[in-house]
């Protein structure tokens, strides 16, 4: 993996993580959860717009990343986002990491290492 590919991959992970965090904060922020009021509150929440901006940046980074690696390798390397988001969910939102989730994270990590080394 060249330095450019690594930088694109890492930046993609960062923007994906930021986008998911922002969307989660936006989704849980509105106080009024009745009908259209929820959506009005949601669209006025700055976290939603941070998430959208992050996803635009991630999309552009993903295209640049895919221009440098084969699709099959890029998709597998991109799966590390699952692990990062599970860990962030644990830290920021107190989500549970069960034994099965930890085992899955371990398997994904080994797969990413093997694909990244090829």
Automatic annotation (TrEMBL):
PANTHER family registered for this protein in UniProt: 4-AMINO-4-DEOXY-L-ARABINOSE-PHOSPHOUNDECAPRENOL FLIPPASE SUBUNIT ARNF-RELATED (PTHR30561:SF9), SMR FAMILY PROTON-DEPENDENT DRUG EFFLUX TRANSPORTER SUGE (PTHR30561)
Keyword Nucleus included in the entry's annotation: no
Organism domain of life: Bacteria
GO MF entries: transmembrane transporter activity
Membrane disposition: Multi-pass membrane protein
Keywords noted in UniProt: Cell membrane, Membrane, Transmembrane, Transmembrane helix
UniProt subcellular location: Cell membrane
Keyword Transmembrane helix included in the entry's annotation: yes
GO cellular component: plasma membrane
Name of this chain's protein: EamA domain-containing protein
Species this protein is from: Snodgrassella alvi
Transmembrane segments: 6-26, 46-65, 71-93, 100-117
């Amino acid at each position: 993996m060249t330095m450019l590919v690594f930088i694109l991959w890492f930046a993609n992970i960062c923007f994906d993580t930021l986008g998911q965090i922002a969307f989660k904060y936006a989704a849980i922020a509105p106080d009024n959860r009745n009908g259209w009021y929820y959506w009005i509150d949601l669209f006025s929440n700055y976290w939603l717009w941070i998430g959208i901006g992050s996803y635009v940046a991630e999309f552009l980074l993903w295209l640049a990343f895919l221009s440098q690696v084969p699709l099959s390798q890029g998709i597998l390397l991109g799966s590390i986002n699952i692990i990062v988001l599970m860990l962030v969910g644990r830290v920021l939102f107190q989500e549970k990491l069960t034994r099965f989730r930890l085992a899955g994270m371990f398997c994904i990590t080994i797969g990413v290492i093997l694909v990244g080394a090829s």
